[in-house]
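Hi D.,

Good news: the full-assembly prediction came through. Inputs first.
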Amino acid sequence: MAIRTSFTELFGVPHPLVLAPMGGASGGALAAAVSEAGGLGLVGGGYGDPGWLERELDTVADATDKPWGAGVITWAASEDAVRLILSYRPAAVFLSFGDPAPYAVLVKETGVRLICQVQDVAGARQAAAAGADVIVAQGTEAGGHGSRRATLPLVPAVVDTVAPVPVLAAGGITDGRGVAAALMLGAQGAVLGTRFCATPESLYPDWAKKRLVAGSGDETSRTRVFDAARDFGWPAPYTGRALRNAFVDAWAGREDELRASAQARERFALGHQAGDPDVGLVWAGEGTDLITAVEPAGELVAQIAAEAEELLRTAARQLDH
Amino acid sequence: MAIRTSFTELFGVPHPLVLAPMGGASGGALAAAVSEAGGLGLVGGGYGDPGWLERELDTVADATDKPWGAGVITWAASEDAVRLILSYRPAAVFLSFGDPAPYAVLVKETGVRLICQVQDVAGARQAAAAGADVIVAQGTEAGGHGSRRATLPLVPAVVDTVAPVPVLAAGGITDGRGVAAALMLGAQGAVLGTRFCATPESLYPDWAKKRLVAGSGDETSRTRVFDAARDFGWPAPYTGRALRNAFVDAWAGREDELRASAQARERFALGHQAGDPDVGLVWAGEGTDLITAVEPAGELVAQIAAEAEELLRTAARQLDH
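Then the structure:
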């Protein structure tokens, strides 16, 4: 049994499940594990560091013959980074956070599929105009960078706006219930991030994986503190959802001061490096409530797909004739 | 055909659809229309004004023999307001925004069902401990007052936390797709607010209904500006989601100053009264993208239920054997 959607048809994958291309989590090993299990694994190219990208793209290309892809942060990307990814002949390039137009032509002229992630209806219009083959509607409940709109109402609004372009749902999806819900909303699949951070294959340090297992969605918040601490120039309206800790509480609302203090930023870097949970950064979505163990990515794909399939198979039983 | 869940069984209603008890929108006529169509209509008692409550409870009690209920804002409620509602022998009392314990005993000793709306997992635990018969998990995408967590990840987390208490989903649900998604997440039904504001029966003024039809979810935001303008003492963490306008943009971040300025508050009151969209308050959830017309509440109930039923009936078709 498998779920067939226009997304699974387009990529020739058995499951409508995509690994979010998360910098610092989605390396080649995690992407390959998801692809091998029948999802679409995406390497998280982040800010486009060429050394990191080459190493992780070598890893995924060596580890799987199944379709895989890679993503970069649009506003931070360079033509070189996108060309480097394209040189590996991936199944898809994933662009998020900014106008995809500058790179869209580059991707599409190679015949590689373009997946654009958007955070609102206006962004979906922009992605459709740029020629996106797939549009991801990302809700605010997602871990890491994102914006304000929430997944449940955003997905059908984007579906209606960009039809017939296939839409995937991202943000807050952690198990088969979330995947089945996404399909009911009109999505053709789901992008999961935080759930795959708590896997042996993820690049998260062990202390951060433990915090995901222990943490609740109630403890996450969208913040600019960690971007200030790392002196990254994320433009409005993007913020990052992470587990709250003493460091966030101390600097929330004082991000400019933090950015200006080399000493405070050094304290963050050292605390994070040391795995101090009161200081360190753990990007985490609200779905972290449903993460109760570190589990292999391939097993998660199988388990989440099976749970979603069972929900679809038995959905009509709720009807009373 | 109808959807049968533990919620529809508990109340003996045909559809797992609930009208949110919205102050300023859900009067007796709207609640009766939803109940007559097979949902559960709830009068929005708001801050508990006895004259208003008596008039609207008279209206709903006269207009329908089907199950209906009424809600109040927990932190603003009084024992008198709750006793007044109970004197009408409603099917349910709905409490939201604060610890329900002080009124829970009062409701339950009369045999009336207690529905508690919560905004996070911690609140769900509190509601279960207070003996709630039904718990509503309300996401941040909801119109009007609410908090930070989003519907899609909150619902399954609450379901797992309070089982076997039935859970309803609220926030961002506007059509049958949202209702079917809520059921996949493990909810036993859905609470709809903003969608029912754009009905002839709603107490919203016509200019506000027009703005809901024209507006997009991208244009809403959670704000404290309107509570400051009305000098209402909403406690943290509650904010209200409304359509953004020039008034919100002018006062965001300066709520204390607004509250202290009788002149500015007067300007708001006059502008709102006059239906000036640059000033006036239109509570609106993110689902407003999907509202394209003012439609009778009863027709909406039938249409939304039919759409959800069709999605459940055909869900298994996405499976490929």
